[in-house]
Amino acid sequence: MSNPLESRVIELGKHVVRMTTAAGSGHPSSALSLAHIVAALMYEQMRYDPADPWNPASDRLVLSEGHSVPIVYAAYADLGGVVGKSPAAKRALTLDDLKSLRELDSVLDGHPNPAEGFPFFDAATGSLGQGLSVGAGLALGARLSKIDKRIFVIIGDGESREGQIWEALDFIIDHELVNVCPIFNCNGQGQADYVSKQQSADVLVGKLKAFGYDVQDIDGHKMDQIASAVAKVGKGSVPVAIVARTQKGWGVDSLKDKSNHGKPLTAAQVAEAEASLDKVAAELKLPKVCGPAPKPPMPPSANGPAKRDKIAVMPFAEAVAKTGMIEAVAKNKLSTRRAYGAALFALGHADERIVALDGDVSNSTFANVFAKAFPNRFFECKIAEQNMISTAAGLSAAGYIPFASSFAKFLARGYDQFEMAAITRANVKLVGSHAGCSLGADGPSQMSLPDMAYFRAYTTAEDGRGNPALTLFHPADAVAAYRLTEMAANINGLCYVRTHRPDVPLIYPQDAVFKLGGCGKLAEGDSVTIVASGYMTTLALKAVRELEKAGIKCNLFDAYCLPIDAEPVLTAARKANGRILTVEDNFAGGFNAALAEAAARGGDVKVFAMTCPRIPKSGKDGDIVLAALGLGVQNIVARVKELR
Predict the structure, then answer these.
(1) Which whole number is the average pLDDT over 196-215?
(2) One of 385, 419, 462, 548 is an active-site residue; which one?
(3) Active-site annotation holds for 385
(4) Do the beta carbons of residue 115 and residue 85 sit within 8 Å?
(5) What single string gives the DSSP state of each residue in 117-178?
(6) How confident is the prediction for the chain on average, in pLDDT?
(7) Alpha-carbon distance 132 to 269, whole Å?
(8) End-to-end alpha-carbon separation of the chain, Å?
(9) Is the pLDDT reported for residue 366 higher than 60?
């Protein structure tokens, strides 16, 4: 006896064909390979309410194979699931809405994207390999909130070549996340050709068993086998992984060939495709669909983490005392990376939503301070930065505020993952330690020099909610690092905090106030206006004091935030000699670019830049390296004299 859902699969397949043809683009063949798996999950197996996709207790589906999304849209519309950017703006999705796939004003984006009004998903996907990490983050959030829920992650077989998939598989085993179920859609085809033998169903079964998974090897078009495999998820002591053998273009003969990836049918071919699906239904003796869609089982009652309007931390002096840094403060020598650890510790006490992730360098980033105080809210990701960033995005979707830290250089491996978090509008805070040329002896393989330009690009874009797509903080001393980390926690959106290894004197009083877009004025004069950031502010201060001895008084600003309100700097420069000198320990494209653009709009101030001019090499300490690059104190002094 056939499962009643099989008849519905036929109709869902027709919707997939029609909607992609109407859009003139999309991936109907990939979507059809998932028809039975998606139907089984969304109609029978997952516990969720289509009328309340924001319910924290709901089972979740992450479509890592994002291009297959039309099949999910079709099922969700059939179920009358609601869409909208908030519960206040929700409405039911209709089958007629499927015709709007990929249109500019549609909630049905070309790939999954909750930020555009499809809250059934938790994260934007489509850049392959990232979904399982997001699922791991959702599972960690469920554990912290004590919610009994399952997370299903659908992964393409070709996609499984991505190394991040295997980072996530390791992480799930490490953290015993038995409620996460990766489902490998093994249809045997990639985009240009068949998948490698290494991504075949047989080989994937062996790999997953070697990784420690309870592997369910099934026919992905058999409802009973899907149900039996899914029933095991969360029941045993090890995670379940499902290897589903499927057919690309299932049910539509004209879509089965390997040359059809990402190619919708023409309008003239739609009737033929529908007839092909009807033929399958007749062969299987399936009855016609009648009546409304069956309702999926409801989730248990549960709440996510409690929200607060404002997160306020303990005073700086109290935090450094409690974290063993008071002696360093007394000696007036404390690095921004250590102050970040104190701030994270204080935030952990202030709000249970604060969680931390690190990539095996927590004793260098000082995230270990948080780990010791809140071990259940700290997640060691080991040397797998891509997985760490996507896992943080999953934790954000679960209602937590994740701080993910590593060396700034190593975070560059996760720029793609960061971009997907930006598309999601995730509330993730990246913290890059050991940044810039001041790292010194470890050399350029450990420095991060283009990060300011990369992240600054996001500060120039709007996130669709009236905010910058990212806020960048670059503290110059421990007080700034402490307060700017607190500020990052209070921003609902992406942040990047850039910290340094060297100990530096305190520049700001412990009760100093910082503001978004602001910069601190540290000296005043009528000559060149110097704008420094991060570690370079310490060197610029030394240069200003030396220049004062020569009778040259300069304005000095510490630029600690992007986007920056440039007007105070420009006003000061206009009152002086109309020249700004930016001093940075990174490649061009950071504060120098921001100020140059602002000055160009006014036309009455000139901006000159001192940035890292070439790929550096190691030296015994950071100041030696900086001097060799023309960025030392004496270089600043000389450049100011040239610009007088």
Answers:
(1) 97
(2) 385
(3) yes
(4) yes
(5) T-TT-SS---STT-HHHHHHHHHHHHHHTT----EEEEEETTGGGSHHHHHHHHHHHHTT-T
(6) 96
(7) 36
(8) 89
(9) yes
